[in-house]
Amino acid sequence: MDFRFTTEEEAFRAEVKEFLKAELKPGWNDNFDSESELGVEVQGEFAKAFNKKLSERGWLAPAWPKNYGGMEASVMQQVIYNEEMAYAAAPVGFNMGVAWVGPSLMLYGTEEQKNEFIPKITSLEHTWCTLYSEPAAGSDLAAIETKAVRDGDDYILNGQKIWTTGAHRSNWGWLAARTDPDAPKHKGISMFLVPMDAPGITIRPLINMAGDHDFNEVFFEDVRIPASYLVGTENQGWYMLAVALDFERSSIAGSARVRRGLGELVSFTKENPQFIENKPEIRTRLADVAVEVEIGAALSYRVASMQAGGKAPNYEATIAKLYSTELGQRFASTGIEMLGMYGPLHPKSKQAKLKGAMERGYQLAVSATIAGGTSEVMKTIGAIRGLGLPRA
Ligand SMILES: Cc1cc2nc3c(=O)[nH]c(=O)nc-3n(C[C@H](O)[C@H](O)[C@H](O)COP(=O)(O)OP(=O)(O)OC[C@H]3O[C@@H](n4cnc5c(N)ncnc54)[C@H](O)[C@@H]3O)c2cc1C
């Protein structure tokens, strides 16, 4: 087994690092109110300008063909890119257009849909949100009830979505809706492209426990969209959701973020040794985190190397997601505990240490173990598909 990166991959990493060093000068994010990883808009004009530069380099969707605004990068280059962006805490957010809307359109879209929508993802004209979850359909996504009923050349949408990240700053939505209420639940779902300013759509903010407005409730009341916004075949949407899309699934960003945070925490303790004095258990836990960062990265590289070898990672990607998100929680808990009374101070507090990063990390690390599939569901997949245990 060869763990080394190729010369080209190392050269690409150096290029990304160089770019980040030039763009993210020390103190670049000192004045932001929030460091929410999803809140590109929160970080204002700086983030917009930064993302524009990524777009111009074809880095927003590294793996995509050049005519769609990508750079035709390999899986490993994508992993390197995502690792470096996360390590630098760059204001890139999570781009759902890149993650699944574009890849799905490449596979299932009509020529018109491809030409109309894909280039606008990488040019940043369109920002996408994902309209899957509903109050009674999260882990059991196939239970969705939002309806799309065909009416001449249109579909009429009615229902409610929830936890829609970025709905308030997106101009397009990627929607799963029920088109055949009588079919078995997996067989009556279709995927649609929805303009978020269509009459009948109401977006209500949901504030997360860190105090950020990232996700929303979205209501559809007799929303009319052209039938040309259906993607693929009617009632085949579930298969589109389930298909292993051609994007990087390694979860490398999770361990890269912890690696960065651990480095900062360790530097802090060297300057402020009182925080670690007589706390052997904290020292041990920090050493554990250092080991776990390497394990998380190895699990992620494993997924990436499978993808690079043309294999579709399944439970391997699930385990990498589970491990890196739970590692984020373990690290944040250790950091908070180490800082004692200072730990829970909000970044805005003058007394906060490390600019309140531990408090922020602690609050945000919880949601990562829920978003994109909960830890319990990830473990079940690992048990059944990884270990081959019988279904409960
Ligand atoms: C930060 C964040 C961003 C999100 N962004 C979006 C978005 O943009 N678009 C979108 O559509 N959704 C989004 N979601 C929603 C997310 O996909 C759901 O929260 C997630 O799938 C879980 O669904 P649920 O909240 O309904 O919980 P439930 O499915 O009701 O689960 C509740 C609890 O029961 C457990 N549980 C459920 N089923 C099982 C099972 N079979 N076995 C064992 N345990 C089980 C779960 O693990 C959990 O602990 C986001 C969520 C978060 C936290």
Structural description of this entry:
With 392 residues, this protein is an alpha+beta fold. 44% of the residues lie in helices and 14% in strands. The chain has helices at residues 7-23, 44-57, 75-87, 96-108, 111-122, 237-242, 252-271, 280-308, 315-339, 357-368, 375-386, and strands at 128-131, 147-151, 154-161, 172-178, 189-195, 201-207, 213-226, 230-231. The strands form two sheets. It has a four-stranded mixed β-sheet. A four-stranded antiparallel β-sheet has the order 2-3-7-6, with no helix packed on it. A hairpin with a 5-residue loop joins strand 6 (201-207) and strand 7. The longest helix is centred in the C-terminal third of the chain and has 29 residues, at 280-308. The radius of gyration is 22 Å and the shape is globular. Residues 34-42 have low confidence and may be disordered. The structure holds flavin-adenine dinucleotide. Flavin-adenine dinucleotide is lined by residues 129-133, 138-139, 163-165, 215, 367, 370-371, 373-374, 376-377, 380.
